[in-house]
Every structure is written in structure tokens, then in C-alpha cells.
UniProtKB/TrEMBL annotation:
Protein name from the UniProt record: Putative 3-methyladenine DNA glycosylase
Start and end residues of each stretch annotated as Disordered: 1-21
InterPro entries in alphabetical order: Formyl_transferase-like_C_sf, MPG, MPG_sf
A single MF term (Gene Ontology): DNA binding
Presence of the UniProt keyword Endoplasmic reticulum in the record: no
Family: Belongs to the DNA glycosylase MPG family.
PANTHER family assigned: DNA-3-METHYLADENINE GLYCOSYLASE
Example GO biological process: base-excision repair
Superkingdom of the organism of origin: Bacteria
CDD domains documented for this protein: AAG
Keywords: DNA damage, DNA repair, Hydrolase
Pfam families for this protein: Pur_DNA_glyco (PF02245)
Gene3D superfamilies: Methylpurine-DNA glycosylase (MPG)
Amino acid sequence: MNDAKLKQDDEDGGDRQRDWESTESLQSKFFDRRPAVVARQLLGCGFARRIEGVWVGGWIVETEAYLSSRDAASHSARGEKPGNASMFGRPSTLYVYPIHAKHCVNLVTESIGRGSAVLIRALQPVWGIERMIEHRGLSSLDVSDGRMLTTGPGRLCHSLAIDRRSDRVDPIADPNWCLFVGAKVPRNRITATSRIGISQSKELPLRFFVDGNRYVSGLAGQHRRPRRDSLP
DNA sequence: CGCGAGATTGGCT
DNA sequence: GCCAATCTCGCGC
């Protein structure tokens, strides 16, 4: 079933007219708030980049907030270093961090120098799906559904070809990136849990996901009964 | 199908 | 060396 959907989504190679022309782009002010607030509000927003004329991306369905203080799991907890400098940059800046031979992408929040950010953990793939499959080194036959593409922070970076070269980029100012308001996800459709894969500050409920969306990583997204794409 | 060990790479001690 | 905001595969129930 998803084969047909993937094909349809990508009929023109992802290079079709952007279908979000009339939508509302996120502004710098959006990110100049506490990371947990931004993490919640990013759910349902569109996130995409253009590579060689092809837009790749989708709807944000899972995020985690990393705080500027009292958060031992945050990369900013031990102060600013060359490797994490972008996390202390202006709000909306990308902070891209390599881990386990993969990458994770964050959006910086609050004002310059705070060191807080929101990790994008999963997208519902929408634009340039054939291109994402290429980036992942898969064939469409290997992809029974889109979860292999953009579920999980490492996989979504791979699909969008995000690596350290995208660190410090401002996706709001850069014409080859796009962040915009999509579906407003009502509060009662958002679940907050503890964050995944960290060893410190585990207890803080700073992971947010769209309830029931199957592109959410971990148990919450994969084997949940109502298996629907709960976004546009 | 759920769980745990191993893989793999860059950055920091 | 060692560790990490991960992912994948293989094994066991």
C-alpha cells in the first residue's frame, strides 16, 4: 500500500512546485522561547531542505527539548566548546551533532548564549521521498513504509543528507531550507515522555510526539493500534 | 516480535 | 582510548 503512496508522493522527483507557498513560515521569534514550548509547537510543522533543486522533508512528529540549565543531558551543560558553539547561537540556528557514526539535528531556542535547543527525532516523510531513499542507500523495494526514512534522529538526517556542513545554518534565512506552520496539533493529541537514549536527567518529561502517528520512534509510534497518518 | 549486544565514527579527556 | 541525544541484526521466548 505504501509503495503506491510513496510513488505518488514523489511522482515528479520531489521537484514539483512547493506546495507550501501559501503557508506561514516560522519566524525567529517562534524560537525565542523556552525549548519545551518550542518542542511542542514544532509538532505538525513542516521541515524541508532543497538539494540540487529537490526538496526533501516532511511533517515534524517527534521532538525533544534540551535545556540551558539544570539539564545534565544537554550538550550545553558543560559550557560552550568548539563542537557545540552553534547551540549557543541565535534562535532557529541548526545545531548538528555527530554521534555513533550518524548525525542529529537540533533547532536552537531562546536568546543567544543560552545553549538550549530542540532535537528533531522524527518526521512524517512527504517531499522528495525517492531522493530520501537514495540518500539512505536503499531501493524502493527495501522501503515497505516510510519509517525506514525519517523515524529516528539519525535516519532523518541521513535521508535529508544533514551532516556537520549544515551546522550553524539558519533554516529561516536560507532559501534552501524551509520551516513552516502545518497542522496545529491540539494539546490532547500530544504525549510527553522522558527522553530517549540519555543517561542523565532521564526523568524530565521533555520528549513530545504526535499521539498515534506511526512515524514516531520507539514503542509509541510503531505498534500502536490506530495506525494512521494523523497529519495532513 | 521484543530485547540486547555489537557496529561504527568523530570528538574530547 | 573512551564515550555518545543511534541503528541494526540476531537470538530467544
